[in-house]
Design a protein that fits this description.
The protein is an alpha/beta fold. Helix content is 30%, strand content 22%. The chain has two domains: 6-179, Flavin prenyltransferase-like (Rossmann fold); 189-278 and 314-424, 3-Layer(aba) Sandwich (Rossmann fold). Helix 1 (20-29) packs parallel to helix 3, helix 1 crosses helix 9 and helix 10 (214-225) packs across helix 14. It binds ligand PMT. Ligand PMT is lined by residues 195, 211-215, 253, 272-276, 278, 314, 316-318, 349-352, 364, 376, 378, 384-386.
Amino acid sequence: MLLNKRIIIGICGGIASYKAVDLVSKLQQAGALVDVILTEHAEDFVRPLTFSTMSHRPVYSDLWEASGRAAETHIALAEEAELLAIVPATANTIAKLAYGIADNMLTAVALATKAPLVLAPAMYRDMYTHPATQANLALLRERGACIIEPEVGRLASGAVGPGRLPTTEVLQGAISKALGRNGDLAHRLVVVTAGGTHEPIDPVRYVGNRSSGKMGYAIATEARDRGADVILISGPVALEAPYGVELRTVETALQMRDAVQSAITGADVLVMSAAVADFRPDTPAAQKLKKGNGGGEAQGFDAHGGLTLHLVRNPDILGELAGIPGSSETSHGQITDKGERSKRLVRVGFAAETNDIVTNAQSKLQAKHLDLLVANDVGRRDSGFGVETNKVIIFHATGQIEDLPVMPKTGVAATIWDRIVPLLSTT
Ligand code: PMT
């Protein structure tokens, strides 16, 4: 996504400017061509050499330097840029941008470029909440700028409130989202499920599985970077929500079913990468089960203190949607009684298999009427639950089978979207 992208990072004179060094480094590592422009006062906080060392490119600051080269350069930079992100953006620069003032290299480039603008305001709490700053941000947002909300927390002054620069991951996410706004999933609504479900035994114990959510979060992030509006329905995981993705958290399979059913109204694609528990304890105990003599037959304990759980079937979330036309059907969509669905829903399932992958995957593809089924070999150490890579075979409703090599989950996610895009409804 970031490979060979021409990105300008503008740095204003605020204490958070030192954090932009990490952002520039991460963007450069991801293959972006990063040009840094410092305002005069940004140089008081971080020296240009720090940024040029990280970006491996020249750094710009003085529009009026004697050779006149900077005056020429700023037009070229503005024309070639695919994105301008100002990190941190001070109240002063935000005001200049709102009013079209171009009195330094950064504001001149901002006025001259047609590239999308991303702003990460970071400043003292009361400057950020001041009506003037808020009005300027509203104006810039109205003109199409992406404003990354500052974090709330302890500021350099010691005060607590909004004004902290978000993490590098958030900043990078916002930049990737803005770069991908016209991608091949633009104007599409996609729903992705991730992680495993937890089925309660009692208030402190549950039946669960080893899904980390990494595969599903990579799928959601990739969709965002290709321009989609993304709803990510996640079981309990230890991952941060990707920037710009609507996260809906659930715990149990029943909650996931409700969340999926309400999210797919109007959606173009559903990708179920969650490891949904097929069974749940019949009646979870209202209080923590006590081992030994504390339990009793009524709670499932036997005479030797052993515990038997009675499990009942969970609904098959994907299976229940089998009646909705997918892209493999000839129909061009269906309108419900309530007029809710007028386009086809592309449905993609996953299968975690340890043996007989081809037979099991094909029967799931057919039983659940899926457009694609991604089978991962969870018997391998480099594939499936918890790890960063996956070894998958993609089964198409058309009968095509693609056996892919081991790849990072981000690469698997990109390949899955490459296969989904041609299936999207054009209605
Ligand atoms: O989260 P990670 O650590 O990155 O691991 C990723 C993963 C291994 C969990 C993921 O790649 C994966 O394989 N997810 C699906 C695992 C699974 O539950 O497979 P299944 O064969 O039980 O289910 C088949 C399909 O039906 C899946 O799309 C599943 O989401 C769906 N399903 C399953 C049960 C159920 N009650 N309702 C469902 O909709």
